[in-house]
Amino acid sequence: xxxxTIVLLAIALAMDCFAVSVTNGIALxxxxxxxxxxxxxxxxxxxxxxxxxxxxxxxGYKDEVExxxxxxxxxxxxxxxxxxxxxxxxKDSEEKDVQPAIAWKSLIVLSIATSIDALxxxxxxxxxxxxxxxxxxxxxxxxxxxxxxxxxIIGIYAGKHLPINMELVGGLVLIGIGVxxxxxxxxxxxxxxx
Length: 194
Prior knowledge:
The chain has 194 residues and is mainly α.
């Protein structure tokens, strides 16, 4: 696999991190560097660890992973998106002004949910050289880190300047990501466009 393909793959995998980071920035509404870096680090870490896990396991478990990965992502993102929507509709306007940083536990759950797609990519690199695979892991982690930082900054700006309930929009985005992952894995999207 060539470098350009690896970089494009890394960017594609980082898109879910970007979308979730935008919603996090919307909820934060204020620039908290430590929160943004914490999220970006965990997203980058889990995005690069997931392919490593499947690469180490080898093709022997590919079928088992593919059976459950989309279900896990769907349930986690539906839950988190629904929770975000509920909170956006029930909070007083004073409470919506400032959001605390997301707890480690929630960030780890989000990191795992957004990196489920990356789990399957480890199988792609089984026939590649170890150096190519290490380069791919670095690119995947770096892209996810950078897109997470950028997403948070965009979300903070949008949350401050757009006169709509951006937390509600963020919850809908999370649900949309979960449904998209599920539909891709079930083949519904390819059937629509074929």
